[in-house]
Design brief:
The protein is α+β, with helices and mostly antiparallel strands. It contains 20 helices and 9 strands. Strand 7 and strand 8 form a beta hairpin. Helix 5 packs across helix 9 and helix 5 packs parallel to helix 10. It starts with a strand and ends in a 6-residue tail after the last strand.
Length: about 400
Amino acid sequence: MAQKTDETKVLRDPIHGYIHVNDQVIWECINAREFQRLHRIHQLGGDFQVYHTAEHSRFSHSLGVYEITRRMIFEVQSLSQALNEEEKIEVLCAALLHDLGHGPFSHFFETITQIPHEQMTTSLILDPKTQVHQALVKVDSQLPKRVAGIINHTHPKAILSQIISSQLDADRMDFLLRDAYETGTSYGTFDLERVLRTLRVHEGKLCVKESGMHSIEDYIMARYHMYWQVYLHPDAKSYENLIRIFFVHYLKQEKVSIPIFEPLKQKRLSNEDFILMDEYRLMVGFQEALRCSDPLLRDLACRILDRHLFGWIEDPEWDQEQKIKDKLQDIGLDPAIYTIEEISQSKAYLPYQESDENTTIWILNSKSKLEPLSSCSEIVKALLKMPNTTKKRFYFAKEALQ
């Protein structure tokens, strides 16, 4: 049985008012070095270069996901009754630790290591040397394995994974509200209280009462607007592209060594190397690169540190691209490095898609039958019928326009 804290611990939070902690294992995980590291990881990758107040971290988001999960399992009566005490502890731990494996600038870092953050998260949880693992095994020797199972969707009780990772989950609910607040974009908000009041469990699935459907539509539209206005902002992508180009070039260099970045030349980072690889470390590495012997690395580091972002054109004409490449060539900047083409499909960023029963938001109708959201909501029907458009974005060093 999990030990309770001597008193309820509370942490002030701009989204939830207070984060409430009553379990000693949760308190110990919060204070573990692997979780404290999340203070040093931006929640929104390069978006802080666009929205100047978007300085919030994976730490605050993870606490928020924990708090929404805590409210779900204790305030939604049918969900509370569906879980025993051990399962409640398991899902609370999974909610808190679900983003433990995020690298610097969040999702972007996965393009460098080629390791999904979920895989890194479970590696840290299952590693006997980590403090989070040691906190979990104090409760039960199998708790790390069960928590990892919730995160990677292998836990025998599927509803636990649905709470953390599904189309309507604590993770999405927190990051939408938190990211909207921190970026000052009010269209990312929705009625969390109404969603929680209308959540139910039926036939082993999380679902929403028919009377709560409109709050779910607001939630989906919040996702739609946040994706196109915040998460996919071209200037944020420009910043991340500079970092990517830097590492693509650096990792090929045999004669240039920046000690802080050397672990990245290994095929796989050790857990200890990963824990140390935070955004503070990357920034120090970029500062060191300003003094290295490679002129390209020096230039890219300067652009990253001083925010000299690439410009961009949406769906450019062929001759526009060619003129820019020719100009860069003329001024001594290699177009193969100083231009980037990105192709995207609009369907890939739809805020809601129903590909199977596991990616469906279920509505509990007045006859106690489950129906897919798309069969109940005209708004969602319209979203799913949107044509799939292809968009090209061409990034380039702004010197080409001078």
